[in-house]
Amino acid sequence: MKPVKVGLLGLGTVGGGTVNVLRRNAGEITRRAGREILVTHASARDLSRPRICDTHDIKLSTDPYEIVNDPEVEIVVELIGGEHPAKELILTALENGKHVVTANKALIAKHGNEIFAKASEKGLMVAFEPAVAGGIPIIKALREGLTGNKIEWLAGIINGTCNYILTEMRDKGRDFADVLKEAQALGYAEADPTFDVEGVDAAHKLTILASIAFGIPLQFDKVYIEGISGVTQLDVAYAETLGYRIKLLGIARRTEKGIELRVHPTLIPARRLIANVDGVKNAVLVEGDAVGPTLYYGAGAGADPTASAVVADIVDVVRTLTSDPENRVPHLAFQPSAISDIPVLPIEEVETAYYLRLSAEDKPGVLADITRILAQHQISIEALIQKEPLTGETHIPIILLTHKVQERELNAAIAEIEALASINKPIKRIRLETLG
Ligand code: HSE
Q1: What CA–CA distance (Å, rounded) separates 113 from 107?
Q2: Of the listed 87, 110, 205, 222, which one is catalytic?
Q3: For residue 368, how far is its CA from the centre of ligand 1 (angstroms)?
Q4: pLDDT over 70 for what percent of the chain?
Q5: CA–CA separation, 295 and 283 (whole Å)
Q6: H or E element, residue 110
Q7: What's residue 274's pLDDT?
Q8: Predicted confidence band at 78 (pLDDT cuts at 50, 70, 90)?
Q9: Domains defined for the chain, CATH in brackets
Q10: Is the pTM of this model over 0.90?
Q11: Using a 6 Å CB cutoff, which residues line ligand 1?
Q12: Under a CB-based contact definition with an 8 Å cutoff, are residues 412 and 348 in contact?
C-alpha cells in the first residue's frame, strides 16, 4: 500500500516532536496503522529558524494554504494555534477533502460545532486528542473506553502552568508572580500567559471534555471561569493546615437541574490521588456510573508527549480512511442527531462547599455575628480556625470551611458579613470539592 502523506501546519515544538516520533517509531506505527505515514509537507512562519527535527525530506513553505490546497496531502495536521487563520485553514482543508488532526483547543472549544458539521457533511474526520491534556489519551478514553457509562462528573488538572505555580507556592512558599516568570521560561505557558493563569486555557479544554462526556454542544461561553491570580501564599498554607491542597480544576458535573461547567481554584482533600499531581503534570478524574472513578495522568504539554497524541490521531484517521463515515466514532462521541440540549447551570445555581478567609476585628461578639449570619442562610460550618493577631494588627484571620451550599445563598451571606463594621472587605472565598 502507498504511504499516507501528511502535511503539518506549524513546525514548532509539537510539529517538530511529531516528525521525530513518526520517524523514531516508524516501524511500530506502520505495523499498527497498516500503512506507512510520512510527513511530506510542512509550513512555518520563518524557515530560517532552527528546528528540533530534520526537515531534509519535507517540502517546506511559509504559506500554510499551499499545504491545504496541495492535492498530494491526505491528512492536514494543524499546529498553528489560535482561532484565525487556523479555522479558515481547516475549513479549506475539509472543503478539499482532507482529514484533519488539530491540537487547537481554543479553536475546537469555540468553533468546533461548525467545524464538525462541515466535516460530517464532507464525510471527513477532525481528530483533536492533542487539544486536551497533551499526551494523556483522555479523548479516546471518554469517547470510546467509557462508552458504556453514564458519565456523572469529571474534574481535571488541565493546565500545567497553573499546576506548576500552585505546586511551587505550596512546596517552596514562593509567591505567585515569581513562579509565573519561571513557568513561562519552561515553555509550557500559552503565548498570552493570562490564558493560563486566568483559567481560559483550562476552560477551552473543559468545554471539549464536557461535550464528549455528556453529549452536549461545545459551549465555551457558558463556562464559569476564575483563574489562580488571586490565590495567595496564605491560602495555600491554611489549606494545607486543614488537610487540603489548592488546585485549578476544570469541573463538569451532571445534576438534575443541568450541567455544571466551571474552572476555578479548588480545595481538594490532600489524601486524594489527584491532589498529589504536582508540577506541570495533568490529570483527569472521571466518574462513570458503571466503572466508578478512573484517573488519567501524564504530561499535559511538551514536544514528544503532545506528538504522542497527534500520532495516535493520525493513525486513527489512517485506519478509518476506507471505512464508511456513518460507522466511525462520532466527533463528539454521541451521534450528531442525539446531541442533548440539557442546560448549563449559571454559577449561582451551583452547589459546593467553601473555604472562607475573613479578616475580623479582634473583639467579643464578632465570631457570633458571623456564625449567626451563616445560620440564617442555612450554611453549616465544617471547620473553623481563628489565628492569633500579628503584632500591631487589630484584625485577626478567621478561616471557615462550610458544608455544601448554593452559591447564590453564599453570596447573600458574604454580602451581609462584609457589611459588618468589624470585618475587612473583601472576604476571600475558594470553592471546595471532596471529589468522593
Ligand atoms: N499552556 C498549556 C498548559 C499548554 O500550561 O497546560 C498545554 O495545553
Answers
A1: 10
A2: 205
A3: 45
A4: 100
A5: 7
A6: helix 105-122
A7: 98
A8: very high
A9: 4-135+303-338 (3.40.50.720), 138-299 (3.30.360.10), 350-432 (3.30.70.260)
A10: yes
A11: 134, 159-161, 188-190, 196, 201, 300-301
A12: no
